Amino acid sequence: MKKSIDLMVILVVFLAIPSIVFAQTVGGGMVALRSFLPLILIFVFFYLFLIRPQQKKSKEHQKSLNALKKCDKVITSGGIYATVNAVRGNVLDIKIADGVNIQVAKQSIATVITKETEEHAKVFATVKK
Description:
- This protein is an alpha+beta fold.
- The chain folds into two domains: 1-67; 68-128, SH3 type barrels (Roll), CATH 2.30.30.100.
- It has two helices and five strands, in the order αβββββα.
- It has helices spanning 2-66, 115-128; strands at 73-76, 81-88, 91-97, 100-105, 109-113.
């Protein structure tokens, strides 16, 4: 009889403990989620307003570099205004003055000057005076 009572006590303990632990885990899980919520919101904010626009800008810049052709006007990362003479893979032959041609890496091009940016710069210079 004593053995059966001990066995029942052990059985009840083993059945009751998981349900108690599970009940505490569910409550603790909600508290943990609430404590991580600000971090999750900060990450979403950074992704939407910093990371994603930067990736988009980088892709557009890469497209403009891949589309470079002869006679395009560019600005290098060093601030040199130039005209593209030839494109050979990742190397550009650019003209910076009459009789002055140099070779630069394609990645050193900061901006490709288009008609729109030229007109905007002229308007800005006129307004500035």
